[in-house]
Amino acid sequence: MNEAVERAAWYQASRHAESSGADASGLGRILIVEDDFEMRHMILNYLTAQNLRAVPVQGRQEMARQFATGEPTLVVLDLCLGDDDGLDLLRDIRSRSDVPVIITTGHRRDEIDVVLGLELGADDYLAKPFGLRELLARIRAVLRRREAKPLAGEREAERGRYRFGGWELDRRARRLTNPHGGPVMLTKGEYALLSAFVDAPQRPLSREHLMRASRVHEDVFDRSIDVQILRLRRKLEMDPSAPQIIRTERGVGYVFTLPVEPF
């Protein structure tokens, strides 16, 4: 099948998904940012067969047009794009939206890009070649976590403000202030992890406990709790390479060393 025929097939599949209400599952419009023709075709066909509305996107301009028509439900973003840098596209997405993003990469040597992608706010990642069933499972898991967060936010709003080592965390406003009085921006994952530490200061916490308590990792595919710790250390520590606030407890997990005072 040549490129023109494949383009027509994708367009017809997208139109069919839109007109037939194929997103009736509630998962909405999923952007597939992938420049490999065969890969896009497989993903589109599979997700459409699962009654999801998947829209193929080839680059920056097309992605911008999709966002202009309304925020998508989720983005599957290949980091190894031809003309556009996948990390730059992720930065563009995060500058305008908190939409869930699953990044994909094709080689083990791209591990540094995966770490950078997670630090820029990606919600999950997949290394190629991956199974389409696994992709679907990750999409559903990321969206489940996103749906659960408003409930967690309501519970957190009932709690107050906390001080630790000159820092202040206002859980009603979801705002962190450093010892100099300046605001510190946190991703949702970083905020959830810090909240888990604040709830149990000066106690060794296992990785499994942090996964459950932070609500960042609720399924068997999650692998990035250590990356979240690294990201949070970079926000809190004077020297992240020699952490004093979030210390590693060998064989156990991590401990938040500062006493926490509610006020």
Order of helices and strands: HEHEHEHEHEHEEEEHEHHEEE
Q: Ranges with pLDDT <50 over ≥5 residues? A: 16-26, 216-222
The shape is elongated
Q: Over the alpha carbons, how many angstroms does the gyration radius reach?
A: 20 Å
Total strands: the figure is 13
Residue share in helix: 40-55%
Q: Could you give a short account of the major beta sheet?
A: 5 strands, parallel
Class inferred from helices and paired strands: alpha/beta
Please, what is the average pLDDT?
A: 80
Percentage of residues in DSSP E strands: 15-25%
Describe the overall structure.
- The chain is an alpha/beta fold and 263 residues long.
- Strands 2-1-3-4-5 form a five-stranded parallel sheet, with helices on both faces.
- Helix 7 crosses helix 8.
- The termini are far apart.
Give structural attributes.
alpha/beta, 263 residues, 5-stranded parallel sheet, 44% helix
Write the layout of secondary structure elements.
Blueprint: H1 3-19, E1 29-33, H2 37-49, E2 53-57, H3 60-68, E3 74-78, H4 86-96, E4 101-105, H5 111-119, E5 124-127, H6 132-157, E6 161-164, E7 167-170, E8 175-177, E9 183-184, H7 188-199, E10 205-206, H8 207-214, H9 225-236, E11 246-249, E12 253-256, E13 261-262
Parallel strand pairs: 1-2, 1-3, 3-4, 4-5
Antiparallel strand pairs: 6-7, 6-13, 7-8, 8-9, 10-12, 11-12
Helix pairs in contact: 1-2, 7-8, 7-9
